Each structure stands twice: as C-alpha cells, then as structure tokens.
Description:
Layout: H1 12-19, H2 23-32, E1 39-40, E2 46-47, H3 50-65, H4 70-79, H5 88-132
Antiparallel strand pairs: 1-2
Helix pairs in contact: 3-4, 3-5
GO molecular function: DNA binding; DNA-binding transcription factor activity
Organism: Chlorobium limicola
Protein name: MerR family transcriptional regulator
Amino acid sequence: MAFDSKKNYYSIGEVSRIAGVPAYLLRYWETFFNELNPSRDTRGNRRYTNRDIAMVLNIKELVYDKGYKLGKASELVKGEPRESDADPKTSEILKLQKEITRDRKKHSEIEERRHLLLREIRDEIEDILQMLG
C-alpha cells in the first residue's frame, strides 16, 4: 500500500496492510512494546502516525526476519534511539512521501499542459469550422 503524503494518521486496517500483519497482532504488540502506543480518536479508534508505522515495521523485522522473541525484541526496541532522524524506517517513509508528492506535482503539471494543448487545438478547429461554414 502506498503512503498518502497528505495523510497524518492511519487506521489499524491501513497499517495492517502496510506492514503485512493482522490487526489483532498489532493490538497484541502494544502490550509488549510500550513504544508502540498509537493515539486514539474521540471514538477510541487507533490513529497511527508515520513514527508508529516505522515502529511496527521495526518490530516486524525483529520478530519475523531476525527471529527474536517478543521479550528480546522489546528490549532491543527500548535500546534504540527515539529520534525520528535516527530511525531508518521513519526516514524511508518520509522519503516515500516526498517522492509521492513530487510525482503528484509532476502529474498535475503534465495534465495542465495537456488541457492547454487541447484547448488550443479546439480553438483552432473552431476557427477552421467558422472559416468553412
């Protein structure tokens, strides 16, 4: 799932799709990892930030890829710096968001040029039709 560059918060379902883990597992991880603590909206639904997504991806890497048990993974997560600049996954997410924003801007510029060109063509055709008829 691509990251929406205009989005500040993600639902648990979106984070589940991004990370490739079930939503119930995200809720379960919150009990082991104090650092994974998404804020809640007025209805009590979880609101994950980019930092939370980076934490989920980090936990997934420790547990699934590196094979750590949750207790050891929790210790490792606690030992890591909390600065977003020091977290490579957060940096990766922010980089992807910048790329998406850049691509959208480029796409809108191309669309604008197409519309201008089509208007010019339409105007020329109308001029030709007026001359003919």
